[in-house]
Amino acid sequence: MIKTKPVGPIPDGYGAHNGELAIGGRTASDLVAAAGKTPLFVYSRAHLDNRVAALRAALPARIGINYAVKANPHADVIAHMEPLVDGFDIASSGELEMVNAAGIDPARVSFAGPGKRDDELEAAIAAGVTLNCESEGEAERSLAIGQKLGKAPRIAIRVNPDFELKGSGMKMGGGAKPFGVDAERVPALARLVVEGGAQWRGLHIFTGSQALSADAIIEAQGNVLGLAAKLANEIGAPLPKLNMGGGFGIPYFPNDTALDLSAIGKALHTYVDELPESFTETELCLELGRYLVGEAGVYLCRVIDRKVSHGTTYLVTDGGLHHQLAASGNFGTVVRRNYPVAIASRYDAEPSDVVNVVGCLCTPLDRLADNALMPAAKVGDIVAVFCAGAYGASASPTAFLGHGPAAELLV
Ligand SMILES: *Cc1c(COP(=O)(O)O)cnc(C)c1O
């Protein structure tokens, strides 16, 4: 008997229709037919709407929600998010073109990320996008480009804080980092930026990603607000804006549990009520990526072959790590665990087989589920990988092995 390995928790809101997984009221085979091919990413409007509504209900009205475009830059997703969120965080001039194409007001856009090229700074300044400057050098280049263009750059400073978001999957603050300006050097740089003729836009403090502990997020947010108040004091002027970061995670793996949003909301209400007077005019926002879009996406691929090797059954699909690097376990994880995976075309059938679901790439790294207990699947069945709405299509090595991109559908 092969030992089974659990799969991650399937997000809320996915059920069966005619025995198949349904997304946005349409069955998996229906969606594949609509796309005209597998593999396919399906993104659910209802999930996106519900997630933003839940956030709005929990958070103080004063805290805006920014969407971190890198989580999912698909044009239809950006367009759907446009009326739902307050701002957009981009991290390249390519993403600037995407938000421009969606007709998003540049005043709602901020641009973070280390290593911004001069041509990227120029495009952002010309468009009127806020630059979250990552270093003194970048701030100086921005001022010089602003002078050349005859346009005052909108500049915020990204702070490298002295604390981190505990338990986060990707640490982006605390100690030496390529991101942001070390906190103690921020006041001097802020004065230089203001004296240099920039439009001062305040601070950006991002401490980490993929945290599932409300307590850790509450602690980090308290530290963010404390640091921002201290820096505003030292700068000697109120902050026009504070981007408080985020790091809200989603459950991907067995034993992961959903974030306690109401606890975070309650704590943020208290924090906001207790802000010093210098924050009266300060615009506040969280910037979230995967929390907004991750659970709204499902990756569908088709079983091409079913084979047995030394007693192990393989479902070989036409999908794989070229679209789903994270689910394969090769994007920022140390120990490979199973994402939530199911047989979409037999969604309500009883599980009876222990199978390895693999992709079609010629590498042993291409695994979608190990030793998973599933309904008996045949060639032609459709496999679903959940939590595919963030860091999927755009964060995977699509060109690897030449199979080409997956289709993407917003329903
Ligand atoms: C990647 C990134 C985000 C989004 O992270 P998620 O884990 O998807 O929420 C937000 N802000 C910054 C600065 C980032 O680099």
Provide an overview of this structure:
It is a single chain. With 411 residues, this protein is of the alpha/beta class. It has helices at 28-35, 45-58, 75-81, 93-101, 118-127, 136-149, 186-195, 214-235, 261-273, 290-293, 325-328; strands at residues 15-17, 20-23, 26-27, 40-43, 63-68, 87-90, 109-111, 130-133, 154-160, 170-171, 181-182, 199-205, 208-209, 241-246, 283-288, 297-309, 312-317, 341-343, 353-358, 367-374, 382-385, 407-410. Strand 19 (353-358) and strand 20 form a beta hairpin. Helix 8 packs parallel to helix 9. The longest helix has 22 residues, at 214-235. The relative contact order is 0.18.
Computed CA radius of gyration, to the nearest angstrom: 23 Å
- Gap between N and C termini: 41 Å
Beta-strand fraction estimate: 25-35%
Shape: elongated
Which ions and ligands are bound to the chains? pyridoxal-5'-phosphate
Low-confidence stretches: none
Class from secondary-structure proportions: alpha/beta
The number of strands is 22
Chain-averaged pLDDT? 96
The major beta sheet can be summarized as: 8 strands, mixed
What fraction, in percent, of the residue positions are helical? Answer: 25-40%
Total of helices: 11
Question: Can you tag this structure with a few keywords?
Answer:
411 residues; alpha/beta; 11 helices; 22 strands; elongated; binds pyridoxal-5'-phosphate
In short:
It is elongated, with a radius of gyration of 23 Å.
Layout of helices and strands:
Blueprint (H helix, E strand, L loop, with lengths): L14 E3 L2 E4 L2 E2 H8 L4 E4 L1 H14 L4 E6 L6 H7 L5 E4 L2 H9 L7 E3 L6 H10 L2 E4 L2 H14 L4 E7 L9 E2 L9 E2 L3 H10 L3 E7 L2 E2 L4 H22 L5 E6 L14 H13 L9 E6 L1 H4 L3 E13 L2 E6 L7 H4 L12 E3 L9 E6 L8 E8 L7 E4 L21 E4 L1
Parallel strand pairs: 4-22, 5-6, 5-15, 6-7, 7-8, 8-9, 9-11, 9-12, 12-14, 14-15, 17-19
Antiparallel strand pairs: 1-2, 2-3, 4-16, 10-13, 16-17, 16-21, 18-21, 19-20
The chain binds pyridoxal-5'-phosphate (PLP).
The site of pyridoxal-5'-phosphate has 15 residues, from strand 15 and helix 10.
